[in-house]
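Annotated sample (chain length 193).
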Amino acid sequence: MGYRTVNKPALALMALLAILCLAPASGLEWRPDLAHSGEWWRLVTGHLVHLNGWHLVLNLAGLALVLALYPRFLPLPPLSIALIWLAIFISLGLLLLLPELPGYRGFSGCLHGLAAILAIRGFREDRLLSASILVLLAGKLVMESAGLGLADTTNLIGGPVVWQAHALGFAGGIVFAGLGLLTPRTPRQSSPE
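Output written by the structure step:
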């Protein structure tokens, strides 16, 4: 097996998440009261900050796992579009489904969406892997909705696990992939400028 180059967009995303752990999260976290009062950037930035270092480590480990499963990952422009879509989809979903939720921090909802996007995108190359990932994610969400396995994570990250963000991320990833925004361009579709 030959040497593989580091996936630069994935590495950049990991670095961004780690750097933002040093920033005051209170200015970036998702809070419905502040999002309603004009601080709309929180719809996106709340997904880039974490409750503590363990929370960040769990999300970085999840991102590394997704990258290991799908080493082709996404180039930076589609990755950026996908993450903005997922963050806004999750944030608006939380506003509708959990209007009493005082705040949210964490990348895990976007991570579930990203895993769904990559699984659907990878269906042509490895149906078994992609179907397995989608089934495992759906099963995980069912377990979380029943409250199974959340207590240890809640203690580790210092706050409640908002499983609804995971479910919204997963749904947002399926919708995003279903819109066909990640269809690779073929030479016939590209046009010279």
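Annotation: The chain has one domain: 8-178.
Annotation: Residues 8-178 form a domain with the Rhomboid-like fold fold (CATH 1.20.1540.10).
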